[in-house]
Amino acid sequence: MDSTLSPLPAPRRIADHSPLADRADLARELAAIKVKAGNTRDARSEVVQILKRRLTEARKLAEQRLIADSDGRSCAESLSLFQDDVIRVVYDWIVKALYPSDNPSSGEHMTVVATGGYGRGMLAPGSDIDLLFLLPYKQTAWGESVAEAILYCLWDMGLKVGHATRSVDECIRQARADQTIRTALLESRYILGDTKLFKELERRFDAEVVQGTVADFVAAKLAERDERHRKTGQSRYLVEPNVKDGKGGLRDLHTLFWIARYAYRVKTDEELAKKGVFTRREAQMFRRCEKFLWTVRCHLHFLTGRAEERLSFDLQRELAPRLGYRGHNGLVDVERFMKHYFLTAKDVGDLTAILCAELEERHEKPAPVLDRFIARLRPKSRRGFKESTDFQIDHDRITVSDDQAFARDPVNLIRIFALADRYNLALHPDAMRLLTRSLKLVDDKLRNDATANELFVAIVTSANTPEVVLRRMNEAGLLGRFVPEFGRVVAMMQFNMYHHYTVDEHLLRCIGTLQQIERGGDPSLGLAAELIQTVQPRNRDLLYITLFLHDIAKGRPEDHSVAGAKIARKLGPRFGLTKAETETVAWLVEEHLVMSTIAQSRDLSERKTIETFAGVVQSLERMKLLLILTTADIIAVGPGVWNGWKSQLLRTLYYETEPVVTGGFSEVNRSRRVEIAQEQFRKAAAEGLSDLPGPALESYIGRHYAAYWLKVDLATKIEHARFLMETEAAGRSLASRVDLVPGQGVTHLTVLAPDHPRLLSIIAGACAAAGANIVGAQIYTTTDGLALDTISITRGFDRDDDEERRAKRIADGIEKALRGEIKVGEAVAAVARKAGSRQRSRTFRIPTEVAINNTWSNRYTVIEVSGLDRPGLLHDLTAALSRHSLNIASAYVATFGEKAVDVFYVTDLMGAKIQTAQRQAAIRKVLISVLEDDR
Asked: Domain HD: where (predicted)?
């Protein structure tokens, strides 16, 4: 197949000087500068001014060409060549005008060498410049002066320059001892000076450093890569990726080429194809990935005016049209751009896997004979598996018996992954290469083949490693071909701050999360870990299928839950599901958000809320499945999204609804659950609250309403009791406390104060004034008129001691605001202006919605507002409600990235619902004005 490909591009070095400037003209301009005896500073200053002007002109021209041709690789090469020209011209001027040596001694020779990234001949606009001043044997006064003068010129130009001055002996000695220096020298490139000296360095580096150390170098580079990924985020599908250091970014390509260059002694990627390490198609993929990533990186640097490597949301929005992307097929321009980015990151991962496998084949030590034995796979018949001689095992990796295995039976494309899962085998790179070339065999006949679908469902519902196997299928391109609906969401990002991963990555992580829930043993997984052991066995499989499908309709004009249900009804029969099973999956997909929404934004002590939810789920088994699905979905959104508070809310909603869907019978009815919660509290208090004995304990229990006992977890109840006791012992009615929450990225601020209508507004305003971002709130009132409010704010520092000091300052601000010592409204307005909320409004576009409903509660009017979050939003909303003479009985605050969803249960000052259409319209109007105020 490779023979039909177009020729590989020519090697990257197409000129010996940059097209961005005329080197001869620059040299003439510097030669005209007169150097006065004893005064080199003025002359050097003139040189720097000329170089600065030339640098500005060169970068401007480079940016114009980049915008015109979208070739970041060419841009980086041109900038590198321009830098070479500057160094050569500056060197010539220095050795002629400042430090001439008419009869140089053997020590007065120098070679200037580019190393590191600059040594590759690629330079981003904001990149560092790494130079090696290579000397014959030791430093001389002349060499020191010349090197120093070059460096000062470059520094004064505003460039970031890393440098070293060494002899060849020193280079070799340090390269042996230090992997970083070894890597930098690996890409050394001659710029000017003594060519013999540079050739000696190259020869000795090969003979004395590289020889015999390939395995160690490869291991060290892969370990560095893994550590870098750990720091920047393990997934290549993070929605704000680091173009340079992130997984699938440029540094991975660099690492790949370092390894190849070290192991195969090649200098260009074209040579990798000639040596058979890459096929011609893979070599072209390398060049395509490199060009795209360099294009993005150069645009980033030009756009920000600095060495910015992180593709933040606001920069994505600006870069997409700059790169020529336009909205199409349901995706906006920025989503199309990021889909291209993530597909490129996937290709980088594939290339890395190919190279590592090739190295293993060529350089690993011979394995013991028995381990190298190639055994035929003859699996026992189980769930559609049949005996097959099309596969074999090579070094614990499954591979094909011959290159016709897939053509002979296209079902083998699915079967190889099913066998890999069943026997816990990795896939051989030769098999993966053949599979990639055989993807054209995936047609409607294979998609509708009963055996292929049975094998696929077995993978999805496997008790082994379904997430790992499905991800490998996805990376091979097979998953999207076999299930085209899944193919539409491959590498699709959701342009918001809530979802951490692309849609396909989220779906696969959901599968892995469900497996963790099923295995149990982690209390943080909540009620789901208990319930999954009680669901019907077949429903367990349906849960896995549902999680694979629940977001599969993202990016379509229609609501993704409704559209997803239609897809589920289409795929169910294909996957071998009965009509009833298909309907269960479709229902779960359509309703997969409802339990989370109700748990986080409705009053769970309100009878109407429970009846409404019961009307949706209708049966206990469906509610179990929905809770498990909801838990897995939230956890797989990203780190810190799931927490104990959400777990407790889901538990409460489940147990509140259980009696309704079971026709009034419940093993644990509401009043009994309150009694159980109180009894658990008594036992815990007996151990941890010795100052709350007998009658005092019962009096304390009586201060909290039933909703408190059902919604708050036991550990928090104990801390609340201790907090109230300490506050009352100190004779205070106003107090606050701080709780750091490990692993969740949030800090809890609990406030005890006399209840009054504007309490929540003041607390929210004080948080906003202190720069704290509120992501959740739990509001409770005691029977004796005190408010016990817990506000969750985004963590500001990694170190606990720093975060604790910050949180205490915020808590002190809340107390001062409640005492009237701070004018909250003015402080919030000032912070909002400083935060630049206009910039966020340009980055994200969230529709503003206000719903006023009198059917969601028997006692209250429920107001739900959603829109773009900003500093002080909760304060402004609650203040607006107070100004309209509304009493806020309870509030539910949720933040989904940049989207705020706040729900308020209100009455008028007489305790009645807001009934008139005119009053509702006035409330809606003022709340919309608050939401759309970008200050």
From this structure: 503-626
